[in-house]
Specification:
Helices cover 56% and strands 0% of the residues. By secondary structure, it is an all-alpha fold. The protein starts with a helix and ends with a helix. Pfam families: SNF2-rel_dom (PF00176).
Amino acid sequence: NNVLELWSLFDFFMPGFLGRASAMEALHRQVLPFLLRRLKEDVLQDLPPKIILDYYCELSPLQVSLLLWPTIKVRHWVDV
């Protein structure tokens, strides 16, 4: 939601890539006058209708077992 959060993510995955956080804050202050933040309710009438497409697929046996494993473990702990 803000530049510091973006910097934090980049610094976690690519340490040093964006420099120091203070440099990012300075850059943010410089470009802030050129950024336009809009609220959804202000532009909703200009947006095209939302399209929702649901795609269903079968889980592999491994995916099913990984999905069920926590439930099986909890039931075992409760029964013991």
